[in-house]
Amino acid sequence: MTSEPKSLYTLSPDLPELDQPVLVHALPGMVDAGHAVRLASEHLMTTLPSTVLARFDHDLLVDYRGGRPSLVFAVDHYEDYVAPEITLHAVEDGAGTPFLLLTGREPDFQWDRFIDAVIELVAHFGVRQSLGLLAIPMAVPHTRPLSVTGHGTKTGLVPTDGNFLRGNIQVPATVGSLLELRLGEAGHEAAGFAAHVPHYLAATEYPDAAITLLERVSAVTGLTLPTDDLSEVALTTRRAVDLQVAASDEVREIVGTLEKQYDAVIATGSGALVTGDQSLPDADQIGAELERFLAGLEDGGASKG
């Protein structure tokens, strides 16, 4: 077996002509708070025309036991197997402008080789800028504007004035973050956005975060990325969350505390909810009451007074 990066993917036979497109990479893995990255990429793939440019060999990259694919048992037989995919698409935005979208599950294996392969494709298609999407749990309330951390391989690629992170913070690596680093080292412009999802909503779908990520990509690149369908779902989600908060004194108190913290940071202009001597919030530490809160959302968001 060759270890050449090119052997990790197969190019489609008929490739379109592209004029220095933007690459958006959305590879949710260990960290995808609110399932925001998955929601954003699925929304783009279902609402915009696209064609496959390259498929990666998932058998070499994916740990099946770490996240098993699904199939259907129909009465007396199996059917509808859904294999994991890591795919590069050419997508047309709402105005007909093409861009590249790398989607699928974050690779479990061969990160260096996979990233070398992506960098080859970036060079092959003449990508002018790459943007990665991420969503992380943060101690912020859902009742305030959703904040975002912008980052890039050089200053000025994306806005960073609204970042709530200050100082040097050791964080778990993702393929997307390592790809950004390696692209910069190879001389390419690379940047990304991390949406801050309220940590008590990290385990449930939070469309507002997906909308915010797409809006940030649009603002930086000029791409026309529709969000109308997501906005309708987001409104329903917000109403369900508000009902659950209103039904629980404990959750209402937690949200109130987060609101005061958020407002204090905004009022002082310090911009720092997390500093270099702190750890990022862990959704596993939320507590029993918030777990019941999330369970209520998963049951449909209904509350009993």
Compact overview of the structure:
By secondary structure, this protein is α/β, with parallel strands linked by helices. Helix content is 35%, strand content 21%.
Helix count, DSSP H or I runs of 4 or more residues: 8
The N- and C-terminal alpha carbons lie at a distance of 63 Å
Widest sheet: strand order?
Answer: 1-3-6-7-2-8-10-9
Just give the CATH class. Answer: Alpha Beta
Instruction: Flag low-confidence runs.
Output: 275-291, 301-305
CATH superfamily: PAC-like subunit
Shape: globular
Which percent bin holds the helix content?
Answer: 25-40%
Order of helices and strands: EEHEHEEEEHEEHEHHHH
Going by CATH, the architecture would be 3-Layer(aba) Sandwich
Q: Please give the radius of gyration in angstroms.
A: 20 Å
Mean pLDDT, all residues: 88
- Give a quick account of the main beta sheet: strands, pairing sense, barrel closure: 8 strands, mixed
Structure notes:
- The chain starts with 8 loop residues before the first strand and ends in a 7-residue tail after the last helix.
- It is 35% helix and 21% strand.
- Helix 1 (36-47) crosses helix 5 (207-221) and helix 3 packs across helix 4 (175-185).
- The model is unreliable at 275-291 and 301-305 (pLDDT under 50).
- It has one domain (5-298): PAC-like subunit (Rossmann fold, 3-Layer(aba) Sandwich).
- It is an alpha/beta fold and 305 residues long.
